[in-house]
Amino acid sequence: MTKISKTERLLNLISFLLRSPRPVPFSEIAGYVVGYDDDAKLDSIEKRFDRDKAELRNLGIPIEYKDTGSPEQSGYIIPAKKFFLKKLELDGGDTVLLSLAARSGALALGSPMLQDSFRSALRKVTVDAPVVEGIPREPATMVEVISGNRRANEQLQLICSAVFGRRRIRFDYLGHNDAEPKGRRLEPYGMGLHEGEWYLVGFDLNREGVRMFKLSRIVGPVKLMGASDSGPEFDIPKDFHIRDHLDRDAWEFGSGEGTTVEIRMPKPMAEQLQRRHRADVKSTSEGTAVLSIRARTPLRLLDEILSWGPDVRVIAPPDLVKAAKDRIKDMLSHYGDVERGEVA
């Protein structure tokens, strides 16, 4: 018989007693519940059960013995009403207080990972809370600059001040496909940390749309466009939430409606990528699948596709198919073995 851990034995006992609609005598626990069904002597199993009862009670698990006057009907039980948490009843005032806690608590915790866990816990508590109009939903933002570079600190502090003061800024930015930095003029809406990188989101006055910028790609100084003593120069849209932008993939940024990119690959791989990239999947008669992803900047998506391995083929749109072939040929020629590479 396979030996199980003490933790598993305790969980088995809790589960068994919670499921039982009536008190269970020890005689129905010994030999039936995994952890109390081994070949040890009955008195040894009973002593083990007594030790487990005492430990669970110390942990707050309400194991009770119900004496009904009949040995056949007396036994142990865990009352569900005492074991499970009571339903939390929240009113509008509670909702407002929890909203304030979500904002101030996120500031106090400091660490982005702790902030996410804190907000997740509050969402679970407030799942049945009444909706109160007018209270802020977006957690407050705190930017703590820690750098040994005094110039970098000054740049970040200026950007933060511009965000909170609603001041327009200008800077040079080296984009993903840019050969050299280009000047940008921005109404900064917010900053956020995503996968270890700081990002700035705002309305790009040059491109007349909301754009996101990686701070590490800003080249040179960041400057205010107006006088240093000017007041707010723009309004941040009420429906703006920094998290909506940080959670997007690189190819989702850009102008227009975008285009649908279709990629053929093994079905298990497509199902896995579907969840990660919010894509559509269609099975083929060949046992493969076609993954469809909407992209505003398909070339950025191509960088991701090429990292998925040799079993993946771009099949639409035609211009991206050609770009994929060109990219693969370029890589093969770089390694000096064009003839051996397959481009499909």
Q: Strand-and-helix sequence, N→C? A: HHHEEHHHHEEEEEHEHEEHEH
- Determine the fraction of residues in helical runs and give it as a percent range: 25-40%
Helix-and-strand structural type: alpha+beta
Strand content of the residues, in percent?
15-25%
Number of helices: 11
How are the strands ordered across the major sheet?
A: 6-5-4-3-7
According to DSSP, the number of beta strands is 11
Q: Could you name the ranges where pLDDT drops below 50 across 5 or more consecutive residues? A: 107-111, 140-148, 338-344
Gross morphology is extended
Rounded mean pLDDT is 82
Count of discrete structural domains: 3
Using only C-alpha atoms, the radius of gyration works out to 30 Å
Distance between the termini: 55 Å
Major sheet attributes: 5 strands, antiparallel
Short characterization:
The chain has 344 residues and is of the alpha+beta class. The chain has helices at residues 6-19, 26-29, 42-58, 80-83, 92-109, 112-125, 150-165, 242-246, 267-277, 298-306, 318-334, and strands spanning 64-66, 75-77, 169-173, 182-194, 197-204, 209-214, 218-224, 259-266, 280-283, 288-295, 313-316.
Can you describe this structure?
The chain is α+β, with helices and mostly antiparallel strands and 344 residues long. The chain folds into three domains: 6-83, Arc Repressor Mutant, subunit A; 150-248; 259-334, 2-Layer Sandwich (Alpha-Beta Plaits). Helix content is 38%, strand content 20%. The strands form three sheets. A five-stranded antiparallel beta sheet has the order 6-5-4-3-7. Helix 5 packs antiparallel against helix 6. It starts with 5 loop residues before the first helix and ends in a 10-residue tail after the last helix.
